[in-house]
Design goal:
This protein folds into two domains: about 1-110 and about 200-205 and about 215-280, 2-Layer Sandwich (Beta Polymerase, domain 2), CATH 3.30.460; about 120-190. Helix content is about 40%, strand content about 20%. The chain has ten helices and eleven strands. The chain has helices at about 1-10, 20-30, 45-60, 90-95, 120-145, 155, 160-170, 180-190, 240-245, 270-275, and strands at about 15-20, 40-45, 65, 80-85, 85-90, 105-115, 200, 215, 220-225, 230-235, 260-265. Strands 1, 2, 3, 4, 6, 7 and 8 form a seven-stranded mixed sheet that branches. It has a two-stranded antiparallel ribbon with strand order 5-11. Strands 9-10 form a two-stranded antiparallel sheet. The longest helix has 28 residues, at about 120-145.
């Protein structure tokens, strides 16, 4: 999947960066952190937008590019490149997505946004982003409740806010399963109309969390680092980025990540797995 992502980015002149545990693994282990369970990548927002446009047609079986334009229940805050001939999904996916949702093993691709320079603008942005985040999950809870399925209590409390948004926008079909329009609004709020600023951050995942914002100039240049049997593109200022995110990143710490892989089966296509064993989990 990494090689597929690299192929697409090279073809369309998009710059990807290893991020989070993948960046840490490349720098410290020259590959996977021994106890890691996924791969993570950043693209700056303009390149991320282009990736959502081109990747779906570049990803033929066994690959599938999962984004708000290709998957009804896709997350708004990230895309996933998946292998349809495998099974791998998280606890959150198990509890919150529909039966047709692609559950292949995946890598995560996150948008990296410019962050407003002023504290006032940041506060206004965060209020908008979190409002739309609650509305997205309020919609999801409304759908699951209508289907008679178990509903996340926190998400269920967001239903009134989502319904009020629909009323304010004159949307009469609040229970439509497809809310691409709302997820687009969420991403626009994360982008905040900015082209450049002093800092960049993963606004759609951790809105203005200090350890997930970095100097924009740290991503001006990249360098390839060894990763297992291949190489990954990394920000040239990777040490500064890792220090901001992890502090003492040189000392391995096991068990601190909040990962919730629910099922991993690299030998069974996810559709076959769900047909045969889905009712048992």
């Amino acid at each position: 999947m990494l090689e597929k992502l690299k192929e697409i980015c090279k073809k369309y002149e998009l710059t990807y960066f290893a991020s989070d545990g993948t960046l840490l693994g490349a720098v410290r282990h020259k590959g996977f952190i021994p106890w890691d369970d996924d791969m993570d990548f950043f693209l700056l927002w303009p390149d991320y937008q282009k990736l959502m446009e081109v990747a779906p047609r570049e990803c033929q079986y066994p690959f599938f590019f999962q984004c708000i334009y290709t998957e009804q229940d896709a997350m708004a805050n990230a895309c996933r490149l998946r292998r349809c001939d495998t099974t791998g999904f998280t606890k959150w996916e198990h509890e919150n997505v529909g039966s047709g949702y692609n559950r292949g093993v995946f890598i995560d691709v996150f948008p990296l946004f410019y962050v407003p320079d002023s504290e006032e603008e940041r506060a206004n942005q965060k209020e908008t982003v979190m409002h739309l985040w609650r509305c997205i999950h309020g919609h999801d809870a409304l759908i699951r409740r209508g289907e008679g399925k178990a509903v996340n209590e926190q998400y269920e409390s967001f239903i009134p806010e989502y319904l009020e948004l629909c009323r304010s926008m004159g949307i009469s079909k609040a229970e439509e399963p497809d809310i691409v329009w709302l997820k687009e609004e969420y991403l626009k709020a994360c982008a905040w109309g900015l082209r450049e600023a002093k800092e960049v951050g993963v606004t759609s995942i951790r809105c203005h969390a200090p350890h997930m914002m970095w100097n924009a100039e740290w991503f001006d240049h990249s360098v390839e680092l060894p990763f297992e049997s291949t190489a990954v593109n990394c920000p040239a200022q990777y040490e500064k980025i890792l220090e901001r995110e992890y502090g003492d990143w040189r000392t391995p710490v096991r068990g601190s990540a909040d990962h919730e892989m629910f099922v991993v089966d690299t030998e069974t296509p996810w559709e076959q797995f769900m047909e045969e064993r889905g009712a048992l989990i």
